Amino acid sequence: MTAIKGPLARLERSREELAKAWLVRLIERASLDEIRDLPTERIARELPELISDVVQAVAANGRVEHELSPEQLGRASALAVLREGREASAADLARDIAALQIVLVRALREELGDEDLEAFALAVERLAEVVGVVQAAAVEEHVRSRSKELEAEANTDPLTGLYNVRYLQRQIALLLDVYKRYQHPFAVLVMDIDGLKRINDAHGHAAGDRMLMQVAMSIRRSVRSVDTPARLGGDEFCVLAPNQDAGHGAALGGRLSSAIAEGVAVPDGTAVGVSIGIVACPEHGDEPEALLELADRAMYKAKASGEDVVLGDAEGAGTAEEVRR
Hints:
single chain, alpha+beta, Globin-like, Alpha-Beta Plaits, 2 domains, five-stranded mixed β-sheet, 14 helices, 65% helix, disordered C terminus
């Protein structure tokens, strides 16, 4: 590789120009929306550094995986940002990285001309190997990031960002397992927001959605990090509170009611009311469906009586079938 170290050194000194050439190739394949969304400041910072990493690895001796340090592999992984927020696949990102190899091969050929075809062929072979490492790191980060996004989408309500029913059901099952093993209690709070239909009818669904988002924010601010706030659908919400009995659940219900009344603004200026039904395990049972149904029943009692918070009837505790009867 001695004959080619001079040209490689010149390539590294030209890394800013090479980064621009690479970016041009990326833009040629992008739509106008994608071009607008490109993180240009980060690209300007990351691409030249990565080109230096690649050129140094090509010039060095030894195996490729030992030549790219964790910091360098981190820069390679950061290239996944080029595809963040865009409907793109790992294959698209791989093509983005492959464009780097094209840019560097052309620049290297211009530096060498026809002086040493053997050295050029060896450099190209090594360049392909190094770019392969970069490509693998970037694609792996892209897949990992996308997997986290999909997991979040599967577990959260798209409007409010709170957990959804599916995640809530898994968590209540987990809390029941913990109770049966360690006797740790937990409270279940089911909430219904008063006035959503009125807001939707009078001011449109966009106003109703804003109200629900404000409710979700008030709930999130009022619960602990270990609690599970979820949207059941429509104007109904739920909170699972580990290591809390019904009395502590009632105290939390009072805080939630106050937080929602104070933190939610509606177009007509009226206060937003909330009806909360509260049960706890083991006081009200130790089956998920039974607990949720008892909490729902207590919530409707609160709504009918005009109270903010109502505790479930412990006498109704039992299996889901017994509760429904």
